[in-house]
Amino acid sequence: MIRKILIHPDPRLKKVCAALPDISDELRTLADDMLETMYAAPGIGLAAPQLGILDRIIVLDCEKEDAATPKPMVMVNPRIIGSSDDTNVYDEGCLSIPDQYAEVTRPKEVRVEWLDLDGNLQEQDMDGLWATCVQHEIDHLEGKLFIDYLKPLKRQMITRKMQKLKREMARA
Ligand SMILES: [Zn+2]
C-alpha cells in the first residue's frame, strides 16, 4: 500500500525515533509499504518518520540503472559503526523536500549495522551513492534533514518554498 509522504516543515520530521524492540508482522507490512511508496515516488531511500511513524526503520535501493535488478534493503535500528576520513559530495534531494537539491559532504564509506526482518544482526560496508543514502536515511531517524547541513539562508529559502508548496497542495 502506498502511503502519504510528509512534506517539510512538519514537526514529525524533527523527532528522534524510537528503537524497535523486535520484529513483528506489522513491521514487515510497514517495510513492504515503505518500499512500495519509495519506488512509486520514485526515490532511492525512505525513513519511517517520513510517513509519520516515529520508529527506527529505513528502506533503500540505490541501483539506479533502469536495467539493474532491484536491490531493496530494509534496515531496522540501523547504526553507523565506522566511517572513512575520505569524504564525498553529492547533490542530495529528499522525498519530503520535493524538487530541491543541494550539495552535502559526508564520509565516502561507512560501515552499517542493522537488524533484518528475520531478526538477524547484519553488518556491511557501503560506499558511493549507497553510503550517502544510508547516512541521509539514518539522519531522518534523528530528526535531521539534508538541509540542516546547508547555510541558514539557503535552508530558509528552501523551507519557504516548501511552505508555499504545502499551501498550494492544501488548496488543490
Ligand atoms: Zn530524505
Question: Overview of this structure, please?
Answer:
29% of the residues lie in helices and 30% in strands. It contains three helices and seven strands, in the order H-E-E-E-E-E-E-E-H-H. The protein has helices at residues 25-40, 128-141, 152-171, and strands at 45-47, 57-60, 73-83, 87-94, 97-107, 109-115, 121-127. The strands form two sheets. The protein has a five-stranded antiparallel sheet with strand order 1-2-3-6-7. Strands 4-5 form a two-stranded antiparallel sheet. A hairpin with a 5-residue loop joins strand 6 (109-115) and strand 7. The longest helix has 20 residues, at 152-171. The two termini are 23 Å apart. The structure holds zinc ion (ZN). Residues 94-96, 136, 140 line the site of zinc ion (ZN).
| Sheet with the most strands: spatial strand order | 1-2-3-6-7
If helices are DSSP runs of H or I spanning 4 or more residues, what is the number of helices?
Answer: 3
* Poorly predicted parts: none
- Heteromolecules bound: zinc ion
Number of strands: 7
Estimated share of beta-strand residues: 25-35%
Measured on Cα atoms, how large is the radius of gyration? 16 Å
Largest sheet: 5 strands, antiparallel
End-to-end Cα distance, whole Å, is 23 Å
Structural class determined from secondary elements: alpha+beta
The global form is globular
| Average predicted confidence as pLDDT | 96
Helix content: 25-40%
Topology order in helix (H) and strand (E) letters: HEEEEEEEHH
